[in-house]
Write a structure and sequence with these properties.
The complex is a heterodimer of chains A (113) and B (113). Chain A is 0% helix and 54% strand. Chain A is an all-beta fold. Chain A is globular. In chain B, strands 2, 4, 5, 6, 9, 10 and 11 form a seven-stranded mixed sheet that branches. Chain B is globular, with a radius of gyration of 13 Å. The longest helix of chain B has 4 residues. Classes of the chains: A mainly beta (113), B mainly beta (113).
């Protein structure tokens, strides 16, 4: 069974601070995604990365895919209360079924005003 | 604009009752999924389908059942609800998970009393 390890599990910071969330595996991904879930709603896809070393930016969010395609990070600059939510990484494993994603356990982020 | 719909959003029901959670999508996706999630916690896959008349059990054992008679419809049924079934149930669909990710519904928050 492939596992996606996310860290930290919980993160509480003040508005304006920077933060990084990590997603790691011992297996190689063919692609990796990040989702954000707000309380009472379903997760929403933020980004998909497919190439080793790839960096994508979405306003204050920066996503990086590791060179070996086994890990990824999400960096938020100058966090705002609206960034509060559960951040989930999900991967489609290279050589595995591309019909089903494997999800990490998530990072619960709270940004205090 | 959400293209995957779950009803009801909230349900409070007595022990022993039979319930059906509805999930419909208008995107023509072949692949559909049901997840169970406690607030702020990880997603647990309970059922999935790769097309009409195809259903499989997920990683988390569940007493629920599903059917896929039409592409757009993937209902989940509990024959006899118990308090241990209290949770949020999320439905998702995808054309190609590794490329486009999942589109999630807003979820059904189930409480069994």
């Amino acid at each position: 069974t492939q596992l996606l390890e996310q860290s930290p599990q919980f993160l509480s910071i003040q508005e304006g601070e920077n933060l990084t969330v990590y997603c790691n595996s011992s297996s190689v991904f063919s692609s990796l995604q990040w989702y954000r879930q707000e309380p009472g709603e379903g997760p929403v896809l933020l980004v998909t990365v497919v190439t080793g070393g790839e960096v994508k930016k979405l306003k204050r969010l920066t996503f990086q895919f590791g060179d070996a395609r086994k890990d990824s990070s999400l960096h938020i600059t100058a966090a705002q209360p609206g960034d509060t939510g559960l951040y989930l990484c999900a991967g489609a494993y290279s050589g595995g079924s591309n019909y089903k994603l494997t999800f990490g356990k998530g990072t619960l982020l709270t940004v205090n005003p | 604009e959400a293209d995957i719909y779950q009803t009801p959003r909230y349900l409070v029901i007595g022990t022993g009752k039979k319930i059906t959670l509805e999930c419909s999508q208008t995107m023509g996706h072949d692949k559909m999924y049901w997840y169970q999630q406690d607030p702020g916690m990880e997603l647990h896959l309970i059922h999935y389908s790769y097309g009409v008349n195809s259903t499989e059990k997920g990683d988390l054992s569940s007493e629920s059942t599903v059917s896929r008679i039409r592409t757009e419809h993937f209902p989940l049924t509990l024959e006899s609800a118990r308090p241990s079934h209290t949770s949020q149930y999320l439905c998702a669909s995808s054309e190609s998970p590794g490329v486009y990710g999942y589109t999630f519904g807003s979820g059904t928050r189930l409480t069994v009393v």
